[in-house]
């Protein structure tokens, strides 16, 4: 149940922050990048699944439920290849959660 809920939460957060089903504008991408950078700096070993879901939503600027290397910022960008455990060239929510393990 938890695995199914987190991706839905991430999508809902992204859609809400982008104004629903509207197309994402360039200024929205810039806003998301700034938000993602701020959120990634706040991630710590004590962060929760909800914190990771917020970060995922902020970085997934195109809404494809995957964070590509060019969408990643900060610690996520620095550790992208290690986090991308299935080598799909994109991080899903579970893979992004691996960031917490790296911080411990």
From TrEMBL:
The keyword Nucleotide-binding does not apply. Coiled coil: none annotated. InterPro entries: EF-hand-dom_pair. Residues 1-23 form the signal peptide. The keyword Signal applies. Keywords: Signal. This is EF-hand domain-containing protein.
